[in-house]
Amino acid sequence: MKILSRDFYERSPVEVAKDLLGKTLMLKKNSGILSAKIVETEAYFGQKDPASRAHTGRKPYNQLMFLDSGKTFIYMVHGNWLLNIVAHQKGSVGGVLIRAIEPLQGTETMLKNRHVKEIRDLTSGPGKLTKALDITKDLNGIDVTDRDSELIVIEEQGEDFEISSSHRIGVTADLPKNLRFFIKGNKFVSKA
DNA sequence: AGGAAGATCTACT
DNA sequence: GTAGATCTTCCTA
């Protein structure tokens, strides 16, 4: 098991968003281990990105995006916690939103956290996956490169896959670029 | 005090 | 498949 290092996150959010696809998210809880494969992400920048939390400048609640890469940045939107990982070149600002995952380990626990019939609906959206994994603000700012953290990201050999991209989902003001990336054909991607 | 926000669920045509 | 209500912070006035 290899944990992704700090350098991995100290690159452009776009590169990190693409490279996070296929990696494994692992959550160590008292009740056991939950893990899932990342299948959909979006890149966000700083001031120049109108959809970014950091767009209006540094504030107490968004300062994590300005600080260390490789840490979580979790915030609430429409009653849902959304999970981001801070990623940017040193001295820059940015992050990657985890939009969808595929459950690997602890599926029963996730099903208990959410009332759905279809496994497909369990984690196929940014607010869904945080509920399934029981991620809240308590985990805000933790270091996903530290093996002692409750939440880490690990590199694992998986099958080959093809990456598709699109505009970002649900944002009121997007940039004229494709900043959303997902594994082509994966069932857990929130939207084709 | 009020409203917007990177969404989800439910109930319809 | 699309539309509308509602979810809970944190910012801005």
Tag the structure with descriptive keywords:
192 residues, single chain, 9 strands, alpha+beta, nine-stranded antiparallel beta sheet, DNA-binding, globular
Give the topology:
Layout: E1 2-3, H1 6-9, H2 13-20, E2 24-29, E3 32-44, E4 72-77, E5 80-86, E6 95-105, H3 107-113, H4 126-133, E7 151-155, E8 163-166, E9 180-183
This protein binds a DNA duplex (13 and 13 nucleotides) through strand 4, strand 5 and helix 4.
Give an account of the 3D structure.
This protein has 192 residues and is of the alpha+beta class. The protein is built from four helices and nine strands. A hairpin with a 2-residue loop joins strand 4 (72-77) and strand 5. The radius of gyration is 15 Å and the shape is globular. It starts with a strand and ends in a 9-residue tail after the last strand. The mean pLDDT is 94.
Oligomer: single chain
- Uncertain segments of ≥5 residues (pLDDT<50)? none
The string of secondary-structure elements, in order, is: EHHEEEEEHHEEE
| Molecular shape | globular
- Please provide the count of β strands: 9
Radius of gyration: 15 Å
- Number of helical elements: 4
Give the termini distance in whole angstroms: 31 Å
What average pLDDT do the residues reach?
94
Largest sheet: 9 strands, antiparallel
Helicity range: 10-25%
Return the structural class: alpha+beta
Share in β-strands: 25-35%
In short:
This protein has 192 residues and is α+β, with helices and mostly antiparallel strands.
